């Protein structure tokens, strides 16, 4: 298939930049809709002529849904930022990149469903596993795109980031699916979800950043990094 | 976290402008979806073979929903214009700005829910307080972004607006959350909402503009203002 | 208010073009969402284990909804094209233009509701009047924007279109609300809608174009038109 | 109509590029919303206090819906890529192109409904025929746009692609509606759908690509192709 994909890759040579921008803006539109659709899963409580006490009870019952909404909002936001970061370097594209990006968007579009499913049954195993699996697959596709884009052989990027940037970016990109995969496995082994475990993300990220910092401060800065930073 | 955020802030130096544009256009897409989703909370009245009189009664019953819709439409429009105004000066970005913007978008995405909740129970305290709280938080994050962007230390803006512009812009940006916070407090103290109070926004804005005009006309125009206007 | 609006109109002088583009792309996003939301008002018929005959009956019952959907789709498409045409000349903006545009978007956002309401009760007067009123207001705001933008006093446009363009554009822009207003009035007077009347739009447009063509061919082409075409 | 369409085609000569970009970005927004709306047709299963077994049964029952979702996601993605490819050459536009594009968008907007209808009744003839008919019409309009854009008489494209590109692109563009039309006809003749037939798309595409490759390798490469590739 390689050959024909390359063949159909043609476009007006003056439009190259716009073709990439269009891919990016289409992606952004999908992200924007997915992140906003999260809210339509939270329905206004029904019934009329309630007193203040009943309204407060309503809101308290909705807390799990709000937690799910907030979490999914920031998961999507984190991956938008990751995509924003990656495509800040992209100056060319291939048929393969477009379809990896589509696969990535597929996992983004699935989020409003996964999030609603997880929020609806917050203490139950299967919805929790489903949600975590969605995030894991999204993160793995994201990692795959990073490897593909920053592989010099693919000629996607003209101005390469520093080795340190790439190292930290990739480590973070793999740490997240690893973390969610652990959550998922623990839930399957023990037959119960532990959403509390999500709070471990911040200390994990902190350790990872410290480790990365120490490692690079230990060894002398190489030439191309000095110019890139 | 400062150091690594800066590290991951890299991108192709020729893409700086597009990276900012992308942040803005993603924001616009979220705004556009949130403002349009307001309408799907207004359901078509059910039942068939109604006569003209029954249709008019239906529409009359929907007036509170239309008022809520119109109000939320213009609240979101006002904040879009504010964002449009702020980012008309932004020529650089930081990790912090991106995440403040995400927090702002979070409050925008919440609006269709708050609006529907408030419209559904228009004369009840808790939904009224919830709606006002949403607007107050949105306005405060907006104010925070203004302070951050126009703080020369952050190097976000290259062409600074006149001092008078900044003064009026900030005063207006703080007046709105203050106003909604008063509405909210009055509702909590008296245990009942007074939506009628919203009509006081226009006279308040008028007084504020007059006050600002007089203040700046009193003192002589300083050098950089003369050039900026 | 004139004075402070002007004051807050500042932005980075190098960003003028992007500020206008942003206004336009925000508008396009709202148009795109409104036009796509039309479809979610058409629900999949319920019930299972139907035979082919029952499915055909289902689809036949949905014909009025599809007619409403097609009509509203092309009404929105026509106004998108009108906006596209107008803003093909806009090289500057004012606070007033932004808010006229917002008012226009308000009527666009209302369309999915009006359309669903009209489709649900296709042979009843009030929904028909409501729908026509929505289109009339949208068209009037559109006409107002055209007058405002192409008024040289407002300095919105640098390259003015030919007089003939403006004349035809305005005539068409006023013919549509006039037509829908007639539909609306007839429905109110006779107490019943006549959707069949919509088919008169094409002959009306044809007559209008012929009339315009003849008028301009009769009189000699003036200088600035010759250059503009 | 030719003459007046041309007349109203005017815009600021410096804005030509942006007018085309706007048409494209509006199209992208509609695509993005249609592709994301597919997910809201998949509802979270209802009921509480289910055990793990019941959740698994729920998910198994949703498999047909997920298959429909995945299929429609990639159908829309394929047509987005086709549009992306076509408009990578477009440097001018006509009134006719805009309205052909609108007709194309109409078929895209219809997809969330067709997809939900087909997923809801996966083994029944009429919904299957409806879905296939939607894809066939979308593909035919797409083919019509390709013919129109790459017809040198219409002056839409300044940098023409190689003859080989055009040949393969058109062959693929006609193969898909032909394929779906066969699916549709078989379903109507036998009075039952055979969704399994969709798996024949890949071998068909493979044969088509092989055939195309051989044909062009057989004959010597003509001059303008050598430069274009």
TrEMBL record, chains A, B, C, D:
Catalytic activity field: K(+)(in) = K(+)(out)
Keyword annotations of the record: Ion channel, Ion transport, Membrane, Potassium, Potassium channel, Potassium transport, Transmembrane, Transmembrane helix, Transport
Keyword Oxidoreductase annotated: no
Annotated TM spans: 23-42, 62-80, 130-150, 171-190
InterPro entries from the UniProt entry: TMEM175-like
Record carries keyword Nucleus: no
Principal location listed in the UniProt entry: membrane
Subcellular location: Membrane
Membrane topology: Multi-pass membrane protein
Similarity annotation: Belongs to the TMEM175 family.
Protein name stated in the entry: TMEM175 family protein
């Amino acid at each position: 298939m390689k050959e024909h994909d390359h063949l159909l890759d043609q476009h007006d040579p003056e439009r190259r930049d716009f073709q990439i921008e269009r891919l990016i803006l289409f992606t952004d539109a999908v992200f924007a809709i997915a992140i906003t659709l999260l809210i339509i899963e939270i329905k206004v409580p029904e019934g009329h002529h309630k007193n203040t006490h009943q309204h407060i009870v309503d809101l308290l019952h909705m807390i799990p849904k709000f937690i799910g909404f907030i979490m999914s909002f920031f998961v999507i936001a984190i991956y938008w930022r990751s995509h924003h970061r990656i495509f800040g370097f992209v100056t060319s594209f291939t048929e393969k990149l477009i379809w990896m990006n589509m696969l990535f968007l597929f996992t983004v579009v699935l989020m409003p469903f996964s999030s609603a499913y997880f929020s609806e049954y917050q203490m139950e195993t299967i919805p929790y596993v489903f949600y975590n699996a969605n995030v894991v697959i999204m993160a793995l596709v994201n990692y795959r795109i990073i490897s593909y884009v920053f592989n010099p052989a693919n000629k996607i990027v003209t101005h390469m980031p520093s080795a340190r940037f790439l190292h930290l970016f990739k480590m973070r990109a793999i740490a997240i699916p690893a973390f969610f995969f652990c959550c998922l496995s623990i839930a399957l082994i023990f037959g119960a979800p532990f959403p509390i475990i999500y709070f471990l993300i911040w200390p994990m990220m902190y350790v990872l950043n410290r480790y990365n910092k120490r490692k690079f401060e230990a060894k002398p800065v190489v030439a191309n990094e000095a110019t890139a930073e």
